[in-house]
Amino acid sequence: MEQAHAHHEHHQHHGHEQPGEPGEHGHGNHGEHGHGDHGDHGSHAGHAGHAGHGNHGKVSWAMAAKATLHCLTGCAIGEVLGMIIGTALGWGNVPTMVLAIVLAFFFGYALTLRGILAAGVDFRTAIRVALAADTLSIAVMELIDNGVIALWPGAMDAHLSSPLFWTVLAIALAAAFVITVPVNKWMIGRGKGHAVVHQYHH
After folding, report:
1. Quick check: 122 pLDDT over 90?
2. What is the dihedral of CA 86, 91, 93, 97, to 10 degrees?
3. Distances (CA, A) of 109 to 73, 78, 104, 194
4. Angle at Cα 121 formed by Cα 67 and Cα 117, nearest 5°?
5. On the CB side of 157, how many CA atoms lie within 13 Å of its CA?
6. Are 193 and 67 in contact (CB under 8 A)?
7. What global pTM score does this model have?
8. Residue 28: strand, helix, or coil
């Protein structure tokens, strides 16, 4: 009788514990598995967002135009300043143009650099990003811009006080802008150029 009673208690004890164990185990698995899955989904969503941002088909002309205008501003400042300095120092056409191109690159990089540094990026990284973002864009722009000025009759010899100088400069910058916009659109679509800069502004 005592053995039967002990066996009965043992059976009750075993039956009481058994439902609890799967419950705890199930909840543990459910919690870990569920949260793990959500974490993975979040990670994939983040990657999908970056992939969409770098997709060539998603790049708008407005985005490319904005990036080009940014470069154009720096180039225009550098070129005009170079022309003023070269003229003031009595330099010839070639050294003045070289100075204008150097300053165009300098101010083009400087404007991009300012925005990246404002996002809290260290200086060395900011320099690399600016070089990667603007080099091709500024190079194409300067090639078109200075090509127009060099080929326009009398433009190279025009003084800063001459309407011809400013007219040709405006036409040259406009031509550079129109031709460089597709270049920037292509670069951003490949995750290069100003696409490199955009990730530091989020």
Report:
1. no
2. -40
3. 11, 11, 9, 12
4. 55
5. 2
6. yes
7. 0.65
8. helix
Residue 28 has pLDDT above 60, yes or no: no
H-helix or E-strand spanning residue 125 = helix 123-151
Tell me which residue of 181, 105, 194, 94 sits closest to 142, measured CA to CA. Answer: 105
Residue reference for tokens 């949260």: 35
pLDDT band at 132 (very low <50, low <70, confident <90, very high): confident
CA-to-CA dists, residue 159 to 55, 93, 154, angstroms? 46, 11, 10
Structure token pair of residue 50: 């970056």
What is the number of alpha carbons within 13 Å of residue 92 lying toward its C-beta? 2
| 146-149: long-range contacts, CB 8 A cutoff, minimum separation 24 | 146/97, 146/100, 146/101, 146/172, 147/172, 148/172, 148/175, 148/176, 149/97
The tokens describing 21, both together, are 């164990």
Cβ-contact 88, 164 below 8 angstroms? no
